[in-house]
Amino acid sequence: MDATTIIGLIGIVITLPAWFFFLRGAWTMYATIARGKRTTTRTAKPMTRLGTLIKEVVFHTELARKPLVSAMHWLVMVGFLLGSVVWFEAYIQMFNPAGGWPLVGSTAVYHFIDELLGLGTVVGILVLMAVHWLGKRHRGTNWRAALFVELVVLLEGLGMILVKAGKIATYGGGHPVVDFFSRFVAELLPASAVLVSVFAFIKLATGTIWLWVVGTQLSWGVAWHRFLAFFNIFLQRNPDGAPALGALAPLEYDGQPLTLDNASEAPRLGVGTPEDLSWKGLLDAHTCTECNRCQDLCPAWNTGKPLSPRKVITDIRDGLEITDDVLWSCTNCGACVEQCPVDIEHIDHVANLRRYRVLEESQFPSELTGMFKNLEVKGNPWGRNRKDRMAWVKKAQRDGIDVPVLKPGDSANGYEYLLWVGCAGSLDDNGVKTSRALVELLNVAGVSFAVLESETCTGDPARRAGNEFLFQQLAAENIENLNAAGVQTIVTSCAHCFNTFSNEYPDFGGHYQVLHHTQLLNRLVRDGKLTPTPRGPEHRERITYHDPCFLGRHNKVFDPPRELLAATGADLAEMPHNRNEAFCCGAGGARMFMEENIGRRISDFRAEEAASTGATDIAVACPFCSTMLETGVKSGGYTTTVTDVAVRLRDSILVDGQLPIRPVKKTREAAPAPAPSAPPVAPSAPAAPAAPSVPTPSAPTAATPTPAAPSAPTPSIPTPAAPAAATPTPATPSAPTPSIPKPTAPAKPSVPTPAAATPAAPSAPTPARPTPATATPKAPTPAAPTPKPAASAPAAPTPAVPGASTPPPTAPAVPKPTVTQAPTPATPTPSSPAVPVPAAPQAPAGNRVPTPTPAAPTPAAPSVPTPATPAAPTPNAPRPTTVDSKEEDADK
User: Fold this and answer.
1) DSSP per position, 633-656
2) Which residue ranges does UniProt annotate as crossing the membrane (predicted)?
3) Fewest beta carbons less than 10 Å away: which of 108, 182, 405, 789?
């Protein structure tokens, strides 16, 4: 028996037990994962999933952010997959050093592929080892497992090269192209068939050791990911390969989502032990390669928190306890999910762990106790009264800004957009500034919109904190109100509301088209309905933009905010972490409402990054980001300001401190009119006159059967000065003449009582004292007319405060309106009546007399004789509804 035969027999003997250990380990791995709880189907759209698998494996799309690492890993992966064919060839080459695979083993193509695989494997693994060990990624990982795998791969590659070089040295036949590298190695080797057999044995032995170790070490994800990654990619949440961001995975039991109706069927809620994990959760845990890419961009880890996304996954795999400090440090920013090369769904695991702590153990940070109660009782996380949500709307209306409000029972069919203001947009100072700027811009652009009076929190903080059923309760309330109003399209300035409406609510019956306010404003700028005045190069302000996690990384909205900032002429300086790799502000995952006592504050880290760009202002697109970054700026002592994109855009179109008058023609004929209990009076917008003319009321439009507001007289027609008069009708879009004096705003409307069966009768309006014309009048900024039900007429200066129900009306005397001087009508067109004096509104039960808005006063001029004009009929004033003073503090 010659030496090559002995070497071959030894090789077979040692590989047999190795194959036994590996196959037993593979079966154990399958059984471990299969024991997991059932979950929603992961096999829908199999061809799409197969395409995703091919794309991610063949083209390495998940590693493309780091080109060098991606290229080297691709070489190692191909060397492992195709090199298996060369590895099995070692069984033949140990017995017959000159032999190989029948038919193909002697072809030039096979030899060339063998050459590329061996050389690529060696080069690839050497570069990856340098990146791994010279950097910081090995810290905190199972470095022994990583080193073992790397050495095995290196020896496999060297084995392929040495076997081929030994054959050339012994038997000759090296080709200058096919064997472009191994023929040079062959010159260093002696001609020996036994040496070729030994090289083949080394190649086989390294693979054998690999099989034996991997089969007995089921927790070595760095080794098992070579097999499990294919399944994890194919079975990921989204068939198209999109990261598991946006919506959280539903709370499930036995493969069925749990709701308030069937929650009692589940013996346990969330994940508290390894036995509670789904099979996909176990597959995630065993697929983790421990590459630490998730950890590299984690805001908690990078600011000294104990949370490492990689360690959370490996602790789940190993059945270790995950402490409260680790669990509640997560901001749900999604950086870990975005960076993971094998599509592990970190945030869903964190959510299920939190659900168990909250719903099963009632164990959570003390700050969340108040937040949960406030959300349940008050509908906002700060515990503010529900009626406070409308305070900014009333102030805007007092300032002459048209902000239509949809009350319970109103229809949204007459509006293009429902503006969802959100808790921060209604109650936070910076959020209110953004909301005010947004409605001003929408008015200037002539956009038809309304806000919902019955808004309550979308429930995002509750769900992200693990209180799933509180979220479902809030979501059901909002969806019921939105669907009852017939809302189709929602625009919001809050990135968290945007994400919740877009991705969470469809699972509960809320299907809407959702736009972030930067998307809508960018569209309006592109369409020419908003025209910012950019600064010249010498006056440009250097700013930077912070990507909100739930707008950017979760929903891939990166360009609209930047395009808006560019339109204002700002000099945009990007932070080191931006777009998909943007650093979180620290507010997500309900962290906005928890103290940050461990490590450095995340907001301080991000503010320092922003200040390092030299920017004088940080542009934001989320009220939570605004609050957190302002805190970070103050903490760091920086002079940088924080401003929402909408505020910057509004400021860029101001003319002499005022918004320009830009009426836009609306095509609302196709939209069905709302159906209130009494016919509304809403004058339509006048068309811009082609030539100077006297004011002539236009005919009512088809959509709104009321008289149109008369056009403002031009200065070319001399008319006497007329005082401005208050009007109870909704504000109309301004005429294009910028010299119209601003009329006195109507009195603040009363807040309705939603629980009342019949709306309360409105109080009689109190007209304001006439304001004489000035030499330089200011242009008002009204917007589109607001179709409202009869109950929404303006009330007396002292607004009624809602209670649980509407108290029975009393019969006080009707307050007498202040007598105003009758304006002298302008020169009329023979076919048009003169402008009548506005009358008090009629009670909701009866028909209302159409009352056109009086023409705006013009500068004093010699009077022109005009024919007598009959006075308009004056209906009886309604009897006001009184509210007991004891109910003034009642919360809605």
Assistant:
1) HHHHT---EEEEHHHHHHHHT-BT
2) 6-27, 74-96, 116-135, 147-168, 180-202, 209-235
3) 108
pLDDT digits (tens, 9 = 90+) for 762-804: 343 343 433 333 333 343 343 443 343 333 333 333 333 333 3
DSSP 356: I
Phi-psi region of 363 (alpha: psi -120 to 50; beta: other; left: phi over 0): beta
The packing angle between helices 602-612 and 623-636, to 10°, is 80
Strand partners, 80: none
Q: Which residues sit opposite 450 in a β-bridge? A: 418
Q: How far apart are CA 868 and CA 327, in angstroms?
A: 80
DSSP assignment of 525-539 equals HHTTSS---PPPGGG
Q: Is the separation of the CB atoms in 309 and 329 below 8 Å?
A: no
CA atoms within 13 A on the CB side of 575: 27
Give Rg (Cα) of the chain: 36
377-526, CATH topology level: Rossmann fold (3.40.50)
Instruction: State how far the Cα of 394 lies from the Cα of 402, in Å rounded to an integer.
Output: 10
Identify the CA nearest to 131 among candidates 77, 81, 72.
72
Topology of domain 244-364, CATH: Fumarate Reductase Iron-sulfur Protein; Chain B, domain 2 (1.10.1060)
Query: Is-contact 709 675, C-beta < 8 A?
Result: no
Q: Which CATH class is domain 537-652?
A: alpha beta
Which phi-psi region, left, alpha or beta, contains residue 345 (left: φ > 0; alpha: ψ -120 to 50)? Answer: beta
**pLDDT, tens only, 534-566:** 777 777 889 999 999 999 999 999 999 999 999
Residue among 557, 553, 549 nearest 591 (CA): 549
Burial code of 729-741, b = ≥16 C-beta within 10 A, e = fewer?
bbbbbbbbbebbb
**Spatial contact of 501 and 474, defined as CB atoms under 8 Å apart:** no
Domain boundaries, given as residue ranges, for the chain: 3-232, 244-364, 377-526, 537-652
Q: Is 252 strand, coil or helix? A: strand
Tell me which DSSP letter residue 618 carries. Answer: E
